[in-house]
User: What shape does this take?
Amino acid sequence: QVQLVESGGGLVQAGDSLRLSCAASGFTFSSYDMGWFRQAPGKEREFVAAISTYYANFVKGRFTNSRDNAKNTVYLTITRLRPEATAVYYCAARPRAATGYDYWGQGTQVTVSS
Assistant: This one.
């Protein structure tokens, strides 16, 4: 059974840092690229980061996507959080060289207060 379980979200203040985790199981983690998406209230889900080199324009160097294959876990580290970062953050997995994501997590809420 494939599972992606995000954690690490919560209520933080503007300017704080946060590290989200996504624990994967049920598939060959090392054969998949991992990405992050987010959905803010009233908005569509949007791309945040993929692999370790592709980031949305709004990231501006404040987000880092990394992974630990030994732990089957991917991380999204966010620094200098802004209130507009408030959203549910999702991790997703896609086979290497594929364009679509096969697996999605349930999301973790990040709320940034000003």
Notes: The chain has no helices and eleven strands.
